Amino acid sequence: MPSIRDVARQAQVSTATASRALRGLPSVTAQTRARVERAAAELDYVIPFNASSLASGRTNSVGIVVPYVSRWFFGTVIAGAEAVLREAGLDLVVYGVPDAAARARFFDRLPVRRRVDAVLVLSLPLTAAEAEALRALRVPVVLVGSTADGIPSVRIDDLAAAAQAVRHLTGLGHRRIGLLGETDPPPHGFTTPGRRRNGYLRALAEAGIEPEPALEAAGGFTAAAGETAMARLLALPSPPTAVFAMSDEMAFGALKTLRRARVGIPAEVSVIGFDDHELAGALDLTTIAQPVTAQGERAALLLLDQLHDRPPATDVVLGTELVRRGSTGPAPAAR
Amino acid sequence: MPSIRDVARQAQVSTATASRALRGLPSVTAQTRARVERAAAELDYVIPFNASSLASGRTNSVGIVVPYVSRWFFGTVIAGAEAVLREAGLDLVVYGVPDAAARARFFDRLPVRRRVDAVLVLSLPLTAAEAEALRALRVPVVLVGSTADGIPSVRIDDLAAAAQAVRHLTGLGHRRIGLLGETDPPPHGFTTPGRRRNGYLRALAEAGIEPEPALEAAGGFTAAAGETAMARLLALPSPPTAVFAMSDEMAFGALKTLRRARVGIPAEVSVIGFDDHELAGALDLTTIAQPVTAQGERAALLLLDQLHDRPPATDVVLGTELVRRGSTGPAPAAR
DNA sequence: CTGAAAGCGCTAACAG
DNA sequence: CTGTTAGCGCTTTCAG
């Protein structure tokens, strides 16, 4: 295994110059740099990460804390962040925290300590203690989908977006609008469901509709949960003519229940989702599109800002957009 | 920032003993270990990753090379691998290679060099040069979903599983069976599509059915591709009564096309997918289930075997299973 | 089982 | 712009 000394010798420079040349520092003549680079190529030399890291104090790695790596939303955010970070020469280390135990272990042991130069946290609303633990790391932190004092974040306006969804329904004449939501309390203490519910309530209020607790069905952000939640609404003496599902996955489940019950979509019941999941088009689901890859990219950029001592934006709110497809339509003529 | 010296001093041992105690080596008395651990806890000390890595030559990290982080299959494999590796104290570093350029850059520059203790490669059929580059790393490598000489792999039997899918259709009396497949050549040179196609051909042969090129529609493993591919089959003078989609995502697209064309499922056309995607249940799709999380877990275990100098299995083939749902049924009475 | 001391292979400060 | 040199903070012999 060649060392930087071998490279330096072959290029007839000192190890310091070799190091500078290989790292692309400006204080090296083009000629010297070329010689060093050629020597490195010939010897098939790369700077060993650990030695460089020990000497410089940097790890060139970013940790990403994520509840569910396998879910579309998180995978897409990760992909966006990874691309930007890789471009900047940073590695992405994944820390999955699928349940409360894993999360507690993460914040307790803080395996990112002395291990990464920055941390990205996806969707987890931090407790005061968790936020404090991250701040104590003394490395840049960026949140996606949640906020905390003094920590930059990237997110969407869930309340406004949900209201936009429900307004689409009221605009179509619907008055009895169901909500497919999250359990209470939500897993991980997620705050997104609450915000989306508030958007639902706001849009109802705007339309002068009295909210009806019976029209809210909880379950979770999965298709299976959406399926059973929709079944409950359908069993109501007077079922809704439209439902707002807090996630597209739930909406998919709801569509299944409706189809199986031979309920016309959107003739009898309209369904709107949230996310613009990659399969929403295939299911012809009207939904609120949120920019997911972009959230990962922007979060990575905020991290880079901080790593380069540029002041980062404190709170980036990306836009959402109604995507009209076939699952929503005018309310059935008033009964 | 406390160092191991501070811990050693406080525990009244040498730094060597402190190091041994903190790493859980057996050659330390329980008493000494307890003293050291208490001192470390009091000082809030953790072994700095880079110093440890430089001194020991190990990085305690595993690299995972993956084409599409955001797709369900890959995200699920990553989650499975990450859980096992984390348990073993290893970090997972993600290397996304969504396109040929990124892939070339990865194998050219080999950013994993001197950076990880082992590498996991997902679904990429390695060229001879790529396999050689990985071997030259001199670290354990495990493949998921592809194979290469001398590199352990975890996978399913795509041919058998696809044949199983198509046999399900022939068993239901179908004789005109369409195939929704991948483009030729497939992206990344994926070999999975070819194997699944061979399974399709085998099952047809078993049933004495002459394959018909017109019944094969290519497009890619996405819902959008499945949608248009299905439309092409439907436009045939004599369309199939059943289709085998190489992935559930394609099957979802096919279902959309069929529904929109008001073709009865399965009354007029049966659809079977492949994967048992998390949304397959919501779409009532009959499919071949493959154990995805388990593939990630097993791959991680094979890595651990190698890292601990245990001979790993060379080729682990996990089982698949037919999951009957509502999208397949008996062939329409012979015309 | 424990300690002393020699690296691991760079990077950064300083000097020129 | 380039060279010298002193660490970075552990882990690992080698002794005892």
UniProtKB/TrEMBL annotation, chains A, B:
MF annotations from Gene Ontology: DNA-binding transcription factor activity; transcription cis-regulatory region binding
Pfam family, one: Peripla_BP_3
PROSITE patterns found in the cross-reference section: HTH_LACI_1 (PS00356), HTH_LACI_2 (PS50932)
Domain HTH lacI-type intervals: 2-56
Superkingdom of the source species: Bacteria
Coiled-coil features, chain-numbered ranges: none
Keywords noted in UniProt: DNA-binding, Transcription, Transcription regulation
Stated name of the protein: DNA-binding transcriptional regulator, LacI/PurR family
